[in-house]
Design brief:
Bound molecules: zinc ion
Order of helices and strands: EEEHEHEHHEEEEEEHEEHH
Strand content: 25-35%
Radius of gyration: 16 Å
Mean pLDDT: 97
CATH architecture: 4-Layer Sandwich
CATH topology: Metallo-beta-lactamase, Chain A
Distance between the termini: 35 Å
Number of domains: 1
Number of helices: 7
Length: about 220
């Protein structure tokens, strides 16, 4: 699985185009402007990709700015955890709270849960439920290539925010990291919602929040 990373908007939120054998999935539509959306489209065209699925790690406003654009482009809705629905229904409220604007996406009708499989090319992504930063946080892992997309759960030397946001739980977030992400294995590459890629091993060794959770 090839992972093409993008970083968009003033929130510096990552968007990933993952592809294999000419088929792709788009994870998190963080592009805020049409020019940013076009950057993704250029990569789709450059690699001549058929985009099979549109996916969200969670529905915070910085991850859904570009949803509307890609829904129209690819004639399908984004798939997300069921708990994303109220966040998407309140997309404009979320945007107002952060002083930005959003063209609200369609409400997801395909709900993803732990253990679900998403296929494209020769790849099958597995869905993991990793709540805490938000109740709808999910991660996608491709075990054969040792790669995972984890949204706003685990960052390089940091973890997802659990203050100033609705329905967060720091305890649940730390549990998602120690019980669901760390067992993936130290060699698994992590593509987070913000910041550079890292690995499970690097975060186990250096991340102060992970170390604190492991000591607890
Ligand atoms: Zn978030
Ligand atoms: Zn985010």
């Amino acid at each position: 699985m090839q992972v093409e990373p993008f970083t968009f908007s003033s929130f510096m939120t990552n968007c990933y185009l993952c592809h294999d054998q000419g088929e792709a999935v788009l994870v998190d539509a963080s592009c805020e402007t049409e020019a940013e959306c076009e950057q993704v489209m250029n990569t789709v065209e450059e690699h001549d990709l058929e985009v099979r699925h549109l996916l969200l790690t969670h529905a915070h406003v910085d991850h859904i700015f570009g949803c509307r654009f890609f829904e129209k482009q690819f004639g399908q809705r984004f798939q997300a955890h069921e708990a994303a629905v109220p966040f998407i229904e309140r997309a404009e409220e979320q945007a107002t709270a952060f002083g930005v604007e959003v063209d609200p996406p369609s409400v997801p009708t395909t709900h993803l849960a732990a253990g679900d499989a998403i296929s494209f090319g020769d790849v099958t992504l597995e869905v993991l439920y990793t709540p805490g930063h938000s109740p709808d946080s999910i991660s996608f892992v491709h075990r054969p290539s040792r790669q995972a997309l984890t949204g706003d759960v685990l960052f390089q030397n940091s973890i997802g925010r659990t203050q100033g946001l609705p329905e967060t739980s720091r305890a649940q977030l730390l549990n998602s990291i120690t019980e669901t992400l760390l067992p993936l294995g130290d060699d698994v590459a992590i593509y987070p919602g913000h910041g550079p890629p890292t690995t499970i091993g690097q975060e186990r060794a250096q991340n102060p929040f992970v170390q604190e959770a492991l000591r607890a």
